[in-house]
Predict the 3D structure of the following.
Amino acid sequence: MPQDLNKSLAESNSCINIVEEHECFLQHMFEEANIATVAEQDLFGSLLKELSDCQIDLAGQQAIHQASEQIAEQCICNAK
């Protein structure tokens, strides 16, 4: 009877060790996923800022182009 109890206890301890190892592995994977998520969020934020800067630059270039066209039209009208 004590041998059966010792065997059962050993099996329980083995199962506990396996579960603890699995838990540690899952915790590690979770931490890695969190790190990757933060990096992706940082990249996304940087890309959004870059897009915003490009849109501002494009709007400025369009305004310059429109002003240049108006000046060219005025020069043509003044030349006539």
